[in-house]
Amino acid sequence: MSGDMVITMGEGTCGIAAGAPEVTKILKERFPEATFKAVGCIGMCHLEVMVEIESGGKSWLWGNVNKKNLPKIVRFHRGQGDLPEAMLIRSTDNTETERSQYLTRQTRIALRNVGELNPTSMEQFRARGGYSAFENIIKGGMTPEQVIEEVRVSSIRGRGGAGFPTAVKWGFARSAQGEPKYLVCNGDEGDPGAFMDRSLLEGDPHSVVEGMLIAAYAIGASKGYAYIRAEYPLALKHFAIALDDARQAGFLGHDILGSNFSFDIKIKEGAGAFVCGEETALLASIEGQRGMPRIRPPFPAIQGVFGKPTIINNVETLANIPWILKNGGAAYARIGTEKSRGTKVFALAGAVKRGGLVEVPMGMTIRQLLEEIGGGSASGRPLKAVQLGGPSGGCIPESLFDTIIDYDAINATGAIMGSGGMVVTDTKSCMVDLARFFLEFTQIESCGKCTFCRIGTLRMKELLTKICDGSGTLEDIDTLEELAQRVKDASLCGLGQTAPNPVLTTLKYFRDEYIAHVTEKRCPGGVCKGLITHTILQDKCTGCSICDRYCPVNAITGELKKPNTWVIDQKICINCGMCVEVCNPDAILAA
Amino acid sequence: MSKASLEATVDPEKVQGWITKIGSDSSAAVPLLQAIQSEYGYLPRKAMNLVLEGTEINASQLFGVATFYAQFRLDPVGRHMIKVCHGTACHVQGADRLNTSLRHALGIDDPKEDTAANGSYTIENVACIGCCSLAPVMLIDGEAFPNLKGADAQRHLVKHAKTKGEVLPGHTGDGDDQTDAKEK
Ligand SMILES: Cc1cc2nc3c(=O)[nH]c(=O)nc-3n(C[C@H](O)[C@H](O)[C@H](O)COP(=O)(O)O)c2cc1C
Ligand code: FES
Fold first, then answer.
1. Phi and psi of B134, rounded to 5°?
2. Is the CB of B41 inside 8 Å of chain A's CB atoms?
3. What pLDDT is stored for residue B171 in this prediction?
4. Residue B112 C-alpha to ligand 1 middle, in angstroms?
5. Which residues in chain B (71-110) have CB-CB distances under 8 A to chain A?
């Protein structure tokens, strides 16, 4: 039954991290006759390693595959064993499982090719209609104004965070004076907790290239940069291959497809500064300077990189463009809500059962996304909040999970849509610690140019640390709130203006946790090290000594195999939690 | 072994090769430093001086850039690099414990130090490597290890050290038994 077998492997960064290369190697030995296809992240990162096996006109998608359970799959496909249901996600026989809801509840536009094709194959991209949107524009004699009009009809807003209407921005650059014009793809994706752009760049780079081509044609740009962060080596590699192949096929370079339009793209590798995602800082970085933002206006559309008109668009925005041109702006505008049209990709991670990449129509509620797609809580503990928009965003509490996904509805909660990172937490998390985490991040990442951002974020971080340590006062909470408002109002760029958001939203929705920290010296989530103690539950302890072996400070003593002899010396213990992790009988209490 | 012995030997021809390939105008500053760092793991002073001699880039720009971006470092690194993700997803799932456990195994007690005294490994914290749904994650010499607990991080390190012939100067908890840490 394996004569016509096609084996598709998810080999995105997450698939590789989970062990795809090893599984591929074994499958190649077992099924030498099969055709192998490596695709990007299918989006169900929680089920990596994923393998799809097609044969005899049927197909099976397997998840959580590893060296140990692989033989069961091999035997099944050899007709020698039962269906290993535990690994099955879906099949053409047994169409849906609970797990496959993850895919069926989505609407994939930006991600239309991710996980469906080999990202390094121009042939497969062309077979799925790639570059035809661009070809239609050139061959059909569409003018740049007509292209911009189609994008205007779609009502798409930039997916990089701020949600500025794409067509309006392109219109500015189209009419700006200055030669050459530049088109920059923002692939910096500095938000911790976000990986949409990584998946697009490594899983479907040609769609981003095609989006850049269309954008460049629309605004009259002849030079392009793709600014991609160095932490994404596979994205950099696949994008470079896509550029070479596109150039070879005549989609980049001089006089493209015999038109008068010339355009080429260079890759610029980011160097690990969050602020470089901000457009004016990104331009400085391309010029070889420190990535310092500058005051706008002049906007980059008028005066951008090397002083020339420049448009900067996010990866996901660009990946949507070919679809819009091909299917019409109206088709895109039919999806979503009045003010937020189309779909949005989210990177779902944290305390949910099924994390990964999710693309949904605007207008779905947060609860639907977390429960129907994300599968709800992974631990069984209730979900507490979702952190949206990274350091610029905020926390939405469970009581507001019926909020719809829409720029305005989310802004009304005090969070922001942002680029699409969604980190979910359950009751075993501390919102004060989370706020401290983000402030530490923004404080390190502040470029230091404006005082409010440089000093304000530092003071906020100090206050939060004090509260987490158990030495904070009620007055500190008030000072923190006041400071947050000032930094928001007085900072120069988006980094400082949004840095207080995690503080303001946690204060708004989780003030009781702050108060518990300062008045009761208690961390309700059991996270803050200064406020918890670790003790051994004598009735559960077996005396195995593993806690002692992993304790980094030798705070644990006792006699081997003698349960009632084990104790933690509180004077030495640093509350790192290593012992809790390794204890098999769950005999260590952190509270 | 002293830290000075980790200083790299810089080959001027190599640096010149990068300048020829990447360019010598001011926009070449970042990619030139990236080329140097990917070769030596850090930015040796001698290589920086060769860039200053061979390009239009001046010292204030070059050092300004080198100190601004998180990716660049001016001190030598160990023979192997461990990068621990401290993005949001990894943080809320306990990334801190990976550091505690790895530092313990490497015998790095001084909080300001990030390299083992015998020059074997350097631990670096990074901001999100984009595998958030497999958090917490670390990379050893570029290879990713997902869904880690502190003890798992240590076990991967012990295994890595064994295959690379490195000695771990600290304490590891795994003793003789590699399987007894709690299953997920
Ligand atoms: C501190 C800061 C960091 C940012 N990081 C990113 C980023 O990583 N990726 C991105 O596309 N946009 C980022 N942005 C937004 C960009 O400045 C810009 O608005 C966006 O790239 C425009 O593209 P769009 O119109 O397609 O959304 C950031 C903004 C700020 C203020
Ligand atoms: S937060 Fe660690 S991989 Fe994203």
1. -115, 25
2. no
3. 85
4. 33
5. 71-72, 86-89, 91-94, 96-97, 100-101, 103-104
Residues 6+ apart with CB under 8 A from A293: A275, A278, A280, A281, A284, A447, A449, A492, A493, A494, A495
Decide if A272 contacts A236 (C-beta within 8 A).
Answer: no
- Taking contacts as CB-CB distances below 8 angstroms, the residues of chain B near A582 are 149-151, 173, 181-182
**CA angle (B40 as vertex; B36, B44 as ends), nearest 5:** 70
Rounded Cα gap, residues A173 and A279, in angstroms:
15
Mean pLDDT of A260-273: 95
Lowest mean pLDDT among A69-73, A453-457, B6-10: B6-10
Please indicate whether residue B65, judged by its CB atom, sits closer than 6 Å to ligand 2. Answer: no
Using the Cβ of B142 and the Cβ atoms of chain A, whether some distance falls under 8 Å is answered with yes
Q: In chain A, which residues have their Cβ closer than 8 Å to the Cβ of B72? A: 271-272
Q: Please determine, for residue B183, whether its predicted confidence score (pLDDT) is greater than 60.
A: no
AA letter at A442:
T
* Residue B174 binned pLDDT confidence (cut-offs 50, 70, 90): low
Which of A451, A328, A320, A434 lies closest to A385 in space, CA to CA?
A434
Is there a contact between A288 and B127 if contact means CB atoms under 8 Å apart?
no
**Backbone phi, then psi, for A379, in 5-degree steps?**
-95, -15
Question: How much distance in Å is there from the Cα of A71 to the middle of ligand 2?
Answer: 31
| Smallest-distance ligand from the CA of A160 | 1
What is the spatial distance between Cα A576 and Cα A578, in angstroms, rounded to a whole number? 6
Across B77-105, average pLDDT: 94
Lowest mean pLDDT among A167-176, A357-366, B169-178: B169-178
